[in-house]
């Protein structure tokens, strides 16, 4: 009843706009990172180092930020998002100065890239925080529309870059951050609901800092052996996933295309995420989250394998279409798997481990892919990615079919 009084539909709209703005900016900063940095004179190896550094810093600060927010020190999810978007906006404005030296560009881009990753899980936390406060938010639809925002941005930004240069990327990023700042200020909890605390929150608060695992990773691994081994597979999947996304422009140029094709390719894979993420609840009624994770892992491998043997743009687009089965399935399936197999007091830790594994895969990919590109070329890079993804497929099947998913602790 409280949820009905809090404006059903309005909250989903506000959260959807926040996601759309976020992923529009994500497209300009992440999907076009190589395009922007190559234009500023960076080599592939330098780009790889920059992205790896940003990923490492993001992985380190995410749990720190979560801990500060959980301790209710005054830094809320809403405030951190507002601080993040203002910082990204300021950094983008600084990058508009063409006379910046390479070291300054390096530092500013690391900060922007890192912060944008860091506040993504905080946006998810914001959703569930407001849902618990009685605000009706349809997470799957809003997140899917975020992917649509990425897709629409990708559809026009490639042509815009070809015509106007990389400066347009900064303009779109600043505009998206301005929208984010305006929307986040509209997030105000219903007064009565904001004072309530759910049983789930009580459980998390009482276990914060120690938890049933006592903060012991070894105990966690013994309790959830299938999940723990699956994290290795996740690193492998996202090694290949990040390799494709971060160095897509080099792959496309090898096939004879340019920034316009990059825009179309990113549009295709992003728009395909919307129906899967919006309808994941229905899919899970027929297929278990465990089997969906296995399916998505195989799709990651097929996606990069198709790209390895692609000789024209048709092969590229077929590869990108597998986003429908890979990333679009993995993200919600992993969240549901953690929710279904882990005790409530371990679920936050489980979600954090998924994020860390994804980030770790990106770090290794950034460090290795750029060096391979500069020394051996695109084809060798894709061979490496295919091998790592295949190892992930084997590991995931061993984890999910041979190991127990939850061993009850005494």
Structure description:
- It is a single chain.
- By secondary structure, this protein is mainly α.
- It has 2 domains: 196 residues, MFS general substrate transporter like domains (Growth Hormone, Chain: A), CATH 1.20.1250; 200 residues, Growth Hormone, Chain: A (Up-down Bundle).
- It is 80% helix and 0% strand.
- The chain is built from 22 helices and no strands.
- α15 packs parallel to α19.
- The radius of gyration is 21 Å and the shape is globular.
- The N terminus is likely disordered.
Give the topology.
Elements: H1 2-5, H2 10-31, H3 33-39, H4 44-70, H5 77-95, H6 102-118, H7 120-132, H8 139-164, H9 167-184, H10 191-194, H11 199-207, H12 217-223, H13 225-246, H14 248-254, H15 259-271, H16 273-278, H17 280-284, H18 289-308, H19 313-321, H20 327-341, H21 344-376, H22 378-402
Summary, kept brief:
With 410 residues, the protein is an all-alpha fold. The protein has 22 helices and no strands.
Radius of gyration: 21 Å
Number of strands: 0
Helix segment count? 22
User: What is the name of the CATH class of the largest domain?
Assistant: Mainly Alpha
Q: If you consult CATH, what is the topology of the largest domain?
A: Growth Hormone, Chain: A
Shape: globular
Reported CATH architecture of the largest domain: Up-down Bundle
The secondary-structure element order is: HHHHHHHHHHHHHHHHHHHHHH
CATH superfamily of the largest domain: MFS general substrate transporter like domains
């Amino acid at each position: 009843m409280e949820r009905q009084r809090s404006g059903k539909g309005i909250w989903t709209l506000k959260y959807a706009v926040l996601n759309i703005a976020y992923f529009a900016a994500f497209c300009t900063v992440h999907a076009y990172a190589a395009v922007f940095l190559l234009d500023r004179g960076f080599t592939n190896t330098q780009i790889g180092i920059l992205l790896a550094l940003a990923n490492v810093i993001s992985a380190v600060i995410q749990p720190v930020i979560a801990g500060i927010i959980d301790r209710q020190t005054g830094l809320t999810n809403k405030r951190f998002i507002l601080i993040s978007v203002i910082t990204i906006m300021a950094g983008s404005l600084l990058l508009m100065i063409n006379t910046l030296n390479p070291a300054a560009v390096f530092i500013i881009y690391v900060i922007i890239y890192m912060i944008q990753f860091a506040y993504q899980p905080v946006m998810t936390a914001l959703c569930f925080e407001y849902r618990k406060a009685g605000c009706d938010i349809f997470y799957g639809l809003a997140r899917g529309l975020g992917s649509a925002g990425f897709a629409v941005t990708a559809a026009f930004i490639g042509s815009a870059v070809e015509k106007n240069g990389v400066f347009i990327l900064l303009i779109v990023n600043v505009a998206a951050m301005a929208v984010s700042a305006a929307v986040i200020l509209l997030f105000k909890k219903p007064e009565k609901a904001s004072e309530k605390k759910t049983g789930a929150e009580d459980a998390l608060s009482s276990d914060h800092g120690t938890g049933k695992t006592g903060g012991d990773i070894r105990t966690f691994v013994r309790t959830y052996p299938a999940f723990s081994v699956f994290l290795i597979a996740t690193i492998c999947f996202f090694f290949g996933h990040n390799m494709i996304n971060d160095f897509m422009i080099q792959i496309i140029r090898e096939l004879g295309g340019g920034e316009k094709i990059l825009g179309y390719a990113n549009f295709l894979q992003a728009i395909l995420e919307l129906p899967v993420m919006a309808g994941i609840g229905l899919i899970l009624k027929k297929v278990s989250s465990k089997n969906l994770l296995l399916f998505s892992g195989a799709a990651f491998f097929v996606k990069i394998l198709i790209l390895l043997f692609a000789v024209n743009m048709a092969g590229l687009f077929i590869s990108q279409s597998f986003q429908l089965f890979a990333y679009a399935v993995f993200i919600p399936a992993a969240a549901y798997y953690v929710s279904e197999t882990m005790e409530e007091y371990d679920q936050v830790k489980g979600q954090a481990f998924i994020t860390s594994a994804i980030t770790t895969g990106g770090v290794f990919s950034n460090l290795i892919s750029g060096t391979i590109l500069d020394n051996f070329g695109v084809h060798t890079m894709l061979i490496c990615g295919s091998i790592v993804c295949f190892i992930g497929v084997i590991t995931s099947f061993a984890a999910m079919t041979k190991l127990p998913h939850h061993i009850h602790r005494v």
